[in-house]
TrEMBL record, chain B:
Its main location: membrane. This is Carbohydrate ABC transporter permease. It comes from Sphaerisporangium album. GO terms for biological process: transmembrane transport. The keyword Cell membrane applies.
TrEMBL record, chain C:
This is Carbohydrate ABC transporter, N-acetylglucosamine/diacetylchitobiose-binding protein. The gene is ngcE. GO terms for cellular component: cell envelope. Its main location: other. SUPFAM superfamilies: Periplasmic binding protein-like II. It comes from Sphaerisporangium album. It holds the Pfam family SBP_bac_1.
Length: 313, 310, 473
C-alpha cells in the first residue's frame, strides 16, 4: 500500500496502475475494518488499563494493575488450561473424523475410486449441525445429556440397569462432554470441504495406486492426505482459533456458566462473566488482551509452520 | 496386510474380473465397518434435530418428561404461538435482507482484499494481512460497547447517517461485513495463493487489466473457496445474536432479526419461558436453512468440485 | 498522461475519504463518555400540585424498560401504565421489554442517554454497585415523602415495608425500589401429602424422619433442589444457619467479616444439608435445573423442594389442577436455636430504579408512585402470584393456593424474618458460594473445605480495592 505514497516519477505506468489497483481493492475493506473492528478493539485495549465498570463517565487509569491481578486469578488460569486442551483436541478430533468420513464418502466405495453408496445423502446430513445456531445446539444437548431417565443418553443406560452418567454435572466428565459437542458441530463442514478437495484428486492416481495393490489405508496416507495437506492445514488453523474462542456452548450449556465448579470454563466465558456479570469491564478487557495475544501467537506459529510458496504477480 | 510386492505378484496372471473380485473381497469387511460408522454418525446428527421438531409439537411437560416419548397429540398451536410471539415472518424477512446484503458485501470486499494480499507483493502486505487475521482473535462482545458508539456516531454523518446509524439495516450490514472480513480474508487468501498462475499470466500478456484478471479469471477459478466461505458467512450472519442485540434496540422492533425474536421468547435463566413455543420457533429458524442447504447442496458441491478440478 | 492524472486524483480522493472518515469514527468512539454527552440536558419538570406532587412535566414522554423474566411485562402494560395514564394522559410512555438488560442498556448509560425507568433484574441485570458508584441512580427520597397515590394524607414511606427502604438504600440514599416481596421455604403438594398422610415437619428430626418414610414408601424421592443453580440450596443453608445462630450470622457474612463462613451455626447447617444431599435427593438432582426439578415435583416424582414464592407462577403451565401448592418454613434444628420455629427468609426483591441522568426522571418516580398504589400492587399480586412491599395490598384479592400459603407463613413469622445481601452486593462471592455448595451437596467437598474456600473468596473481595464495599448494621 505504501507504494502509493511514493512520488509518482519513481514509477512507470505499470507500477502505477498496479499500485492504483492494490489501493483501490484494499481501500473499502480496510476502511470498513478499521472503523468497525479495529477502532472498537483499540478502545477495548485502552479500557484494559482502567477500572471502568461499564456505566461510569470517567474510567480511572490503573496502568497494569488488571494484568497483575490476572496472574493470581486461579479461575482464569484454569480457563487457559481448558483452552489449551481444546486447542489440541478439538482440531485433532474434528479433522480425524472429517477426513475419515470424507475419504469413505469419496473413495470408500467397492472399487476404491468412488464413494460409498448414499455418499450424497451423508454429505447433506453431516452438514446439518453446522446450520444450527449455537444456542439451539446448547439447548439440544442439555436434553441429550440430562442426568435422569429423561436424558437421551442416560435413558438407555438406566434401562440397562447402569448408573446414569453426569455428563454435565460431574466435574470430571463435563469438559469431555463439551468437547464432544464442539466436534459434533464442526465435523460436517470439514467433511464437505475435504470431499471437495478429494473430488479434485485425479481418478487415475487412485487407479494407478490400486493397480499397484495399495490397500485403502495406504491409498489414504500415500495419495489423499498429501494432496489434501494444504486444506487440512487451513482447517487446523481455523479450528485452533475457534478453540481459543469457544464461548456460547459453554455459557449456555453448563451449570454456573462454565461449571460445575469451573470444570468447563474457558477464557471467553471468564471475560464475559467479568464484563457482563461483575461489570468489571476493565479487568475483562485485560483478559481479552491476553486472549488476543494467545490467538495471535498461535496464528503466527501455525502460519510459519505451514508456510508455503506464494505465487505472485 | 500383504506387502505391496507380494500383492502385485499375486495378481499377475489373473483376469481383470478376478482382480476386481479380489479387491472387493479385500475391502469387504472394512466396507461394512465404514457403513456402520456412517450410520452411527448420521444418527448422532439427525436425532437431536428430529427431537427439536418433535419437541415443537409437544406439551410443556412432555418436553421435560421422558426424552424418547412421542407427543400424545401433536400440538400445532405451539407453532401458531411462536409465529405470533416471535413475529417469525417479519423477522425472518429482516434476517434475509440483512444476511443477503451482508454476505454479498463480505464476499465482494473479502475476495478483493484477499486476492490483493495473496497475489501482490508490496510493502505493508504482511501487516495488513495480520491486521485482518488478528480480528479473529478478539471476542466480539468486548467490543460491543465501543461498537455501539461507533455506529451511533456514524448515524450523525451528513446524508448517509440515517441509513447506517443505530436501528438501521445499513448499520447492521456494514458491521456484519466488517466482522466477517477476518475469516473471509484469511480463508480466501489461502485459496488464491494456490491458484495456478499460467492463465493469469497469459491474460496479462494479452493486455488485460488487473481488475479484469481478477473478475474474469481468478474469481471464477476460486469458485470452490468462494462457495464454501459464502456458506460459512451466511450461517454465521444468520445465527448472529450479540451484534443485533446492541445495534437494533427495543424501540426498533420492526427491524429485529430472527435470533432476537427467538431470544425474546426463550431465556437463558429459564423463568416462565414458553418452552414449547421456543422449540417451535427454533424449528422455524432451522427449517429454512436445512431446506435451502438441501436444495442448493448440489450446486454447492458442484461449485466446490468444478473449481477444484480446474 | 490524462489517464494518469485522473487516477492520481482518484488516489487522492480515496486518501482524503480515508483521512476524513477515520479520525471522525475513531474519535467518535471515545466512549465511555461518548464525546460531550456527559452533562445531561436539564431534567424535565413541571409545577407541583396536589395531583402532581412530584412535579412532573405533564407532556414530556419517558421510557419504561421492563425485564421480561418470571413476571413477564404484561403487569406493566396492563396494570401500571393504564393507572399512570389515567392521571397523566398527556405524558407518553415508551414501553419496551427485554431479557438482556445489561447489554441493551449499558451502552446507553455509558453514553449519557439512559431510559428513565428501568426494571434492572434477572441474570443479565446491570451491577448495582457500578451504577451506585457512578451516581446513575436517582435519589428516591422525594418519592418516599410524597403523598401516596391512594391517600393524600399518607406518605408513600408509610405504605410500604420498612425493609424495602433498608434494602433499597445504597450509601445512605434510597435509590432502588424493591417491589416484590419474596418468601422462601420448602414447597410441597397438599394433595400428595394428604394422600399419603405425611405431616409437615417442625423439627429437623421430624424432617429427616419424613424423608426416610418417603424414601421407604417408594412413592417418590423425598427432596430435590435446582442442582444446576446451587443458589437454591445455599439459600436454605444460610437461612438455617441464621435460625441456629441468629441474624448476626448473616450480617457477618454480608459484611465480609473474618471467619464469618467458618462460624459454627454455618457449619452445622451446611453439615445438615450435606447429609440430606447424600441420602435423600432425587436421582440426578445435581445435573437438573430449576424447571426440570420443579416439573418433576409437579409430576409427583419428588415430594419437597426449596424455592421462593415465584414458584407457583413459574410452574402455572405444568401444575396439575389439584396439586395444591403450599410451603412450610425450615424446621427447627434444635432446642437451642436462636430464632423460633416459623422464621422465614423473606425480602423485598425485583429491583426498579430511575436513571438520574435521564431526560425525565420525575416521570419515572411518579410511575413508581403509581406502582405503589393499592390497586397497582394488588392487581400485580393477582396477576403474577407474588406479594409486594405495599402493606395490605393483597388483602381481599383472590390469591392462588401457593401464594395464600406463603402469605400465611409470612404473617405467622412476624418479626422473625431473615435475609442476606451479599448476592446483590458481591456477585463474585455469590458465584463462588454456588460453585462450592454444588460440590458440597455432591459429596465432593467436606464442610470444612467448603467453608475454607468460600471464606477465602470473601477475604479476597474484602481486600480488593476495585470493588465497592457495603455494610449493613
Amino acid at each position: 500500500m505504501s507504494n502509493g505514497t511514493k512520488p509518482p516519477f519513481f514509477m512507470n505506468r505499470t507500477a502505477f496502475t498496479r499500485a492504483r489497483f492494490i489501493i483501490g481493492f484494499l481501500a473499502v475493506p480496510v476502511l470498513l475494518y478499521l472503523v468497525y473492528v479495529i477502532s472498537p478493539y483499540a478502545q477495548a485495549f485502552s479500557i484494559a488499563m482502567t477500572d471502568w465498570r461499564g456505566v461510569n463517565a470517567e474510567p480511572g487509569f490503573v496502568g497494569a494493575a488488571n494484568f497483575r491481578r490476572l496472574l493470581d486469578d486461579n479461575v482464569f488460569w484454569t480457563a487457559v488450561r481448558h483452552n489449551g486442551l481444546l486447542l489440541v483436541l478439538m482440531p485433532l478430533g474434528t479433522l480425524v473424523i472429517a477426513l475419515f468420513f470424507a475419504f469413505l464418502l469419496n473413495a470408500g466405495g467397492p472399487r476404491g475410486v468412488s464413494g460409498v453408496r448414499g455418499a450424497r445423502f451423508y454429505r447433506v446430513v453431516f452438514f446439518f449441525p453446522q446450520v444450527l445456531a449455537v444456542a439451539i445446539v446448547a439447548v439440544l444437548f442439555q436434553q441429550v445429556f440430562r442426568p435422569d431417565e429423561s436424558g437421551m443418553l442416560n435413558a438407555p443406560l438406566m434401562a440397562l440397569g447402569l448408573e446414569p452418567v453426569g455428563f454435565l454435572s460431574d466435574p470430571g466428565v463435563a469438559f469431555w462432554s463439551i468437547l464432544g459437542v464442539l466436534i459434533w458441530q464442526a465435523v460436517g463442514f470439514y467433511v464437505v470441504l475435504f470431499s471437495a478437495g478429494m473430488a479434485s484428486i485425479p481418478r487415475d492416481l487412485y487407479e494407478a495406486a490400486q493397480i499397484d495393490g495399495a490397500t485403502r489405508g495406504r491409498l489414504f496416507f500415500r495419495v489423499t492426505l498429501p494432496l489434501l495437506w494444504d486444506t487440512v492445514q487451513v482447517g487446523w488453523i481455523y479450528l485452533g482459533i475457534a478453540a481459543l474462542d469457544v464461548f456460547a456452548i459453554v455459557w449456555v450449556m453448563t451449570a454456573e456458566h462454565g461449571g460445575p465448579d469451573h470444570s468447563t470454563t474457558v477464557m471467553a466465558a471468564e471475560i464475559y462473566r467479568n464484563a457482563f456479570q461483575y461489570f468489571k469491564f476493565g479487568y475483562a478487557s485485560a483478559m481479552g488482551v491476553v486472549l488476543f495475544f494467545f490467538t495471535v501467537a498461535f496464528a503466527v506459529v501455525a502460519l510459519r509452520l505451514s508456510r508455503r510458496e506464494r505465487v505472485e504477480f | 496386510m500383504v506387502s505391496r510386492t507380494s500383492a502385485r505378484t499375486a495378481e499377475v496372471g489373473l483376469t481383470r474380473g478376478q482382480v476386481r473380485e479380489r479387491r472387493r473381497l479385500r475391502l469387504g469387511p472394512l466396507s461394512g465397518l465404514s457403513h456402520v460408522a456412517l450410520v452411527v454418525w448420521t444418527v448422532l446428527v439427525v436425532v437431536p434435530i428430529v427431537w427439536t421438531f418433535l419437541a415443537s409439537v409437544k406439551s410443556e411437560d412432555e418436553i421435560f418428561g421422558s426424552a424418547w416419548s412421542l407427543p400424545a397429540t401433536p400440538r400445532w398451536d405451539n407453532w401458531a404461538r411462536a409465529w405470533d410471539q416471535a413475529h417469525v415472518g417479519r423477522y425472518m424477512l429482516n434476517s434475509v435482507v440483512v444476511v443477503s446484503l451482508g454476505t454479498a458485501g463480505t464476499m465482494l470486499f473479502g475476495a478483493m482484499a484477499a486476492y490483493v494480499l495473496a497475489r501482490y507483493r508490496f510493502r505493508g502486505n504482511r501487516a495488513v494481512y495480520l491486521l485482518f487475521v488478528s480480528g479473529l482473535a478478539f471476542p466480539v462482545y468486548l467490543a460491543l460497547t465501543p461498537l455501539f458508539f461507533v455506529v451511533r456516531n456514524m448515524g450523525n454523518l451528513p446524508l448517509i447517517g440515517p441509513l447506517i446509524g443505530l436501528d438501521s439495516y445499513g448499520g447492521l450490514v456494514l458491521v456484519y461485513i466488517a466482522y466477517s472480513l477476518p475469516f473471509t480474508v484469511f480463508f480466501l487468501s489461502a485459496f488464491f495463493r494456490t491458484l495456478p498462475q499460467a492463465v493469469a499470466e497469459a491474460a496479462f500478456v494479452d493486455g488485460a487489466s488487473h481488475s479484469r484478471v481478477f473478475f474474469q479469471i481468478m474469481l471464477p477459478l476460486a469458485r470452490p473457496g468462494i462457495v464454501s466461505i459464502t456458506i460459512f458467512n451466511v450461517l454465521g450472519q444468520w445465527n448472529q445474536y450479540q451484534i443485533p442485540l446492541v445495534l437494533l434496540s427495543g424501540q426498533a422492533k420492526d427491524k429485529w432479526v430472527l435470533t432476537q425474536g427467538i431470544a425474546d421468547i426463550s431465556t437463558a435463566a429459564g423463568y416462565d419461558a414458553d418452552w414449547a413455543a421456543l422449540f417451535a420457533a427454533l424449528s422455524m429458524a432451522i427449517l429454512p436453512m436445512l431446506i435451502v442447504y438441501t436444495i442448493f447442496q448440489r450446486q454447492i458441491q458442484a461449485g466446490l468440485t468444478a473449481g477444484a478440478l480446474k | 498522461m490524462a489517464d494518469k492524472s485522473i487516477s492520481r486524483r482518484e488516489l487522492l480522493r480515496s486518501a482524503a475519504v480515508t483521512g476524513l472518515l477515520l479520525p471522525g469514527a475513531l474519535a467518535a468512539c471515545a466512549s465511555p463518555g461518548g464525546g460531550g454527552s456527559r452533562t445531561p440536558a436539564a431534567a424535565a419538570t413541571g409545577a407541583t400540585s396536589a395531583a402532581n406532587p412530584l412535579g412532573i412535566a405533564e407532556t414530556s414522554p419517558f421510557e419504561v424498560v421492563i425485564f421480561d423474566g418470571g413476571f413477564g411485562d404484561a403487569y406493566a402494560r396492563n396494570i401500571h401504565q393504564p393507572l399512570f395514564a389515567a392521571r397523566h394522559p398527556s405524558a407518553q410512555i415508551k414501553h419496551s421489554a427485554t431479557k438482556e438488560i445489561a447489554k441493551t442498556l449499558q451502552p446507553r448509560f455509558a453514553g449519557g442517554n439512559p431510559p428513565e425507568f428501568v426494571n434492572n433484574s434477572g441474570d443479565n441485570a446491570m451491577d448495582f454497585g457500578a451504577l451506585a458508584q457512578d451516581g446513575q441512580l436517582q435519589d428516591l427520597g422525594a418519592l418516599l415523602d410524597a403523598p401516596s397515590w391512594d391517600d393524600p394524607a399518607m406518605k408513600v414511606r408509610d405504605t410500604i415495608l420498612p425493609s424495602a427502604v433498608e434494602l433499597g438504600t445504597y450509601d445512605g440514599t434510597y435509590c432502588v425500589l424493591n417491589y416484590a416481596n419474596t418468601v422462601w421455604g420448602i414447597w410441597y403438594s397438599t394433595k400428595l401429602f394428604g394422600d399419603n398422610g405425611w405431616q409437615v415437619p417442625k423439627t429437623w428430626d421430624e424432617f429427616t424422619a419424613l424423608c426416610e418414610t418417603i424414601q421407604k414408601s417408594g412413592t417418590c424421592a423425598p427432596f430435590t433442589y435446582a442442582g444446576k443453580h446451587p443458589f437454591y440450596i445455599y439459600e436454605t443453608i444460610l437461612t438455617l444457619a441464621a435460625k441456629i445462630g441468629g441474624v448476626e450470622v448473616l450480617k457477618n457474612i454480608d459484611n465480609l467479616a473474618p471467619d464469618a463462613w467458618k462460624a459454627e451455626p454455618v457449619a452445622k447447617a451446611a453439615e445438615a444439608f450435606a447429609e440430606l444431599g447424600a441420602k435423600y435427593l432425587l436421582r440426578g438432582t445435581e445435573g437438573l435445573d430449576h424447571i426440570q426439578t420443579q416439573t418433576a415435583h409437579n409430576k409427583y416424582q419428588v415430594a419437597m423442594l426449596p424455592c421462593g414464592s415465584w414458584l407457583e407462577n413459574e410452574q402455572k403451565d405444568t401444575t396439575p389442577a389439584d396439586f395444591g401448592y403450599a410451603m412450610f418454613p425450615l424446621p427447627s434444628f434444635s432446642e437451642s436455636d436462636a430464632l423460633p420455629y416459623g422464621t422465614l427468609h423473606s425480602r423485598p426483591g425485583e429491583e426498579f430504579f430511575v436513571a438520574a441522568r435521564s431526560a425525565n426522571p420525575r416521570a419515572g418516580m411518579e410511575y413508581m408512585r403509581a406502582m405503589l398504589s393499592k390497586e397497582g400492587a394488588g392487581k400485580f399480586s393477582e396477576l403474577v402470584s407474588t406479594l409486594t412491599i405495599v402493606k395490605g395490598a393483597a388483602d381481599g384479592r383472590t390469591l392462588k393456593p401457593g401464594l395464600r400459603s406463603a402469605a400465611g407463613r409470612l404473617k405467622e413469622a412476624g418479626e422473625n424474618v431473615t435475609y442476606f445481601r451479599f448476592r446483590q452486593w458481591y456477585k463474585e462471592l455469590h458465584d463462588e458460594v454456588a460453585a462450592a455448595t454444588g460440590q458440597l451437596m455432591a459429596g465432593r467437598l467436606k464442610v470444612a473445605q467448603w467453608a475454607e474456600r468460600v471464606q477465602r473468596k470473601s477475604d479476597e473481595i474484602k481486600n480488593d480495592t476495585s470493588v465497592k464495599k457495603f455494610t449493613r448494621a
